[in-house]
Amino acid sequence: MQVPDILSIVTFLPLVGALLTMAARSDQAIRVTALAVTTATFLISVLLWTGFSVADAAELQFVSGGFNLISEAYDIRYLLGIDGISLLLVLLTTLLGPIVVLSSWKYIDRHVKGYYTLLLILQTGMTGVFCAFDVVLFYVFFELTLIPMYFLIGIWGGEERIYAAVKFVIYTMAGSLLMLVAILYLGHAAGQAVNDGLFTTDYFKLVEYNVPISTQTWLFVLFALAFAIKVPMFPFHTWLPDAHVQAPTGGSVILAGVLLKMGTYGLVRFCLPFFPHAAAEQAVLFGTLAVIGIIYGALVSRAQPDAKKLVAYSSVSHLGFVVLGIFAFTLTSLQGAVIQMINHGLSTGALFLLVGMLYERRHTRRMADFGGIARSVPLLTFFMVLTALASAGLPGLNGFVGEFLILVGSFGSSIPGMTVLTAFATTGVILAAIYLLWMLSRIFFGPVRNEENQTMPDLNRRELIILVPLAALMILMGVMPQPFLERSEPATAQLLELVQAKQSAAPDEPSRPSQKNMPDDPVREGGFEVRAEPDTSQTQGMIPYASMLQAMDH
Amino acid sequence: MEESGAVTMELSGAYDSILHDIAGGFSLILLLLAGIVCIIWDIFENDEPVLPFVGAVACAVAIVWEVRNLDADSATVFYGAIRAYGLSSYINITILLSALATLILSVPYLKRIGRGYGEVYALILFATAGAMMLGTANSLVTVFVGLETMSLALYILVGLVRQDEGGIESALKYFLLGAFSTGFFLYGIALLYGATGTMYLPQMAYGFMMRGEMALLFWAGMALFLVGFLFKVSAVPFHMWTPDVYQGAPTPLTGYMSTASKTAAFGALVLVLYYGLAGMNAAEWQVALAVAAVVTMVLGNLLALVQANVKRMLAYSSIAHAGYVLVALTAGTSQGYAGAVYYLLIYSVMNIGAFGVMSMIEWDGKEGRVQTIDSLSGIGFRKPLLGVAMGVFMFSLIGFPPFGGFFGKVAAFTPAIEAGYTWLAIAGVLTSVLSAYYYLRVLYVFWMRSSKQAAPAVRDQAFPVTVSSAAVLVSCAVVLIVVGFVPLVRDMVMGFFDASAFATMP
Fold it and tell me: Which of A257, A327, B83, B185 gives 20 to 30 Å between its CA and that of B311?
């Protein structure tokens, strides 16, 4: 029924492709190879969608590997798999692969070989991040994405590319290296507690392990910091506008479309289940920062004269919604957050592509240089309006589904203050409409201020091929989000259940009930800290993963 | 009658034991012989171009020999003077790999600067033999003899270019400070002998415990001994000589100094800590190492940040990397020692590679001493092989996955975390972030600046890359990509520090 190692193929085919492009001679051959490899990868990844069992969407599927990496004395494994959340993100990544290759077709005209080789390596890193179910393996993929990105920005970027590239790498790396310390600490502690003293970073064993309350907070901080920088959340966002604006179009699309999701994905996948108490404790803080990000990002977007910068700052705003949804701890909001990750990847990716197309035509991104081009480029205008509306959350398009679920879910959250925060967040939707529509009006409508704008060529076939699938998905996810939601729901529901079970399992904690239908606090055993030894019978019930785990051991 | 019978018996036993010992010290003997052959050959055929290959073949044979002995149980040979097999084979392999790579890389380099002397290759072989003696020492005397053999050969190699005031300065500085640190070593050895009554490392702890009242003497001796080691591995605050010496020495030999001699000194330090201080309270010396580790990482990385010259930058970086090894040693556990020696192998591979690349793009006629990094703008596009290889080495030195440097750091920091030194690991990663800045700068110059910004002299240079040198660099890069994912090396290293290792005391 399932091709056993399809996931490894999807992950590593681009890497093999990188070797091919390195060997290719002419620029055209390199482009064609890259396109063929990414398209093939996407087509194979469609098998993941079709072969994915919706009924067991909470369980790990397409499991691949399982053998030890690094050392027999450490339980660090090559373990790939996908559940409902990963599935969507993996497909987003593979879909953007050929799109990015096509979008760079003409724009990248120097050092072509290096560009496509790095792009393919990058894709392996990104796919791996979403499939890795061993934390060290995840970390390897997570960091692997930085290397190609450094060169993509630094070699093919704009004027300030060096500053942007170095800032991007140093910022991200500072966070992730601190996370590495936390991973090693956690691996050791979990190994002592649940793995017969054997150091482990196996995801399921770490989930099984109840981190003592005393260390939860700082471990959570180290993990969350790495992801908050990646997202980026409000005070850590300053690398983003630089990197996005300076990167070549393809790089921006990948940055916005996939790389940022690695941060929110990390929060969902690791921070919540590993450190549920600390996450609940810090929920208000994260919610507040998210809302600041939403409003601040929107206001700054409004002030940009440069279209690409506007889109870049809008990411800060949009990802604020995702973070808010994650830390509201309700099923609805978490579902919204997952869908919003995909939405943002599609619509912001498309926005960067469209801005890039404008740039290729006029070699400027200043909105003041455009105006009234709707008549000369009607097709481009159509796609831009559609995408901008999707991004602004117009009902019937995908952005609405995500933002609506997040806002409704967060409003119903039992975390004190979340309701007020949600109310503030809602203004972000209005602000988004303001800056996006303002951008549309300045670029596409109004009087023609510049002669050159009248003779701009409209979309060619290549550009249509790039945009049509994205636009189709935006509409599809807007009118029929069910297939997407039903795939991620079991996984998010189970995650939330697990988080709540863990939260209620520590009677020591002045716990903050995170959902109304949460079970009552269990018996308080005065001062007893639930350390390490989880109640296996209970865990078994809570984690269908456990059966998976047993199957893996054989 | 009885007496003569006893003598006969002893002699017959002696032959067996000599044969057995020769097997244990085979690579050491082989390299010394190869060195002597080179010297004598050089007398008859001055600067014979075959000489480096004699050395390379000797190294290769020695490596094969040691690989075969990797899984043998550790044992002492030559009446407890050196330790062979197992861990010692591993240390020897690390040193020999550095030597082999250096021999190959220095041939085109020395030819270009017109110093292709036959003696150079003999000296490299002697230095390697000294390094192997130091890195596998089982007695304080061997530590000293090995150290001096290695150092004397290196003093000469550093001052290879006699006409160049920079090279001479560098050699003199190395010699004076080396002699200075030797003083510490000797004094420390004397005190340790006084406190324990033995020169043999595995008997030190026992001897110390027998003479319980000698604590002050013992720890004073250990402190001096440690200072000597910190000098040799260029840990702060005993690092002053490093940048000047590294900058002034011929580049491939700098690579050799920064790897082989460091591996040897750290290897000996591991043996001293693991065998010499076995069973003692690690807290006695952990704090000293922890402090040395922190200041070494912080200062090494900070000073590297401001260097305009790549060799000097790499010198400070090698100081910083000594700090990472010290982090692993601070743990004071078997995992810590295993992590340290694992890190040494990976560090050697990446540093040899980095210096190798730099040796091939040198243009100032002063062993790269005065050329700035910026002068090499856009060299990556002109020399893609060197550029890509440098990318691997730099990212590996930062500690980026999937390269070996990352797995080395994991191996070095995990034991420290397990031993409760989480703050040390945090200091380690924070300083690694600093290091990213200067390593990335090299890649920025290589790949992100236009060749038009390069120094005029660079534009006229062809920078030829010989096939053998390219093979060395590619091998280094491939090893760095693969090594982390193959449990083989890591598992083997862990095996060296099993409790069973104590079964083989003399």
Answer: B185
